[in-house]
Amino acid sequence: MSVWTGDVVVVRFSTSHPTTGAAQDADVLPVGTLVVAGAAMADVVTVADVGIGLCTASVTMPTVVAGQRAQLQIAATVAGVAGVGIVWDDETRNPIGAGLTALGDTRLANLDTAVSSRSTYAGADTTGTTTLLSRLSATRAGYLDNLSAGAVALEATLSTLVASIWTGITGTAANLIADHVLRRTTANVEASANGDVLSARSLYGAVARLVHKVSMAESTMTVTQSDDATTLTTAAVGTDAGADPTISIDPS
Known about the structure:
Order of helices and strands: EEEEEEEHHHHHHHHEEE
Helix content: 25-40%
Oligomer: single chain
Distance between the termini: 104 Å
Strand content: 25-35%
Strand order of the largest sheet: 3-2-6-7
CATH architecture of the largest domain: Sandwich
Largest sheet: 4 strands, antiparallel
Structural class: alpha+beta
């Protein structure tokens, strides 16, 4: 705990019979004195009787400096016996500047006006202000304006762009894409790192069975890659000596 200028200090203290120790009111209302740095102060200490052998003492702290001892001294007479004692003892400490270094005190002293007034640009140059403003060209300002539109606006712009591209795919463009797909060699497909791994169960695998080397050995059919050497896949072949031989296939 600590106290400072303007604080109201309220303490309770008791009085008792000097012989029996039983709670007992003083012969007259006790008198309180505020003591600061060992000196009795003239400030009024208000003492009130709140019960048998029980009183309160209150005082408003005068102007003090940090690091002083502040005490409440009570003088009372009980059953004709006078006594004096300290019922409260504390240290004065500034709640705002406590623990500040000399540098910290100086910086606080420099806050002699509202902080908001320090952030107003009045057109005068400060360190780097002119350089910063000169670099903010119209183009860069436009970039900042686009950022201020937010992610929603940017997403809407992208969606519009995608829709425009899709609408812009003409028949000629679609034919061009189809021609490239149909004319692409399987060797280029095999050399590409895009898509899934090479598999017989794919459109590429289906084409490979038609255009790559296919060999038969007993009941196993082997389909190679485009080099006619590397095995792409194998398949078990079922035979029937009594079945009709196939001599040609002529699509309609």
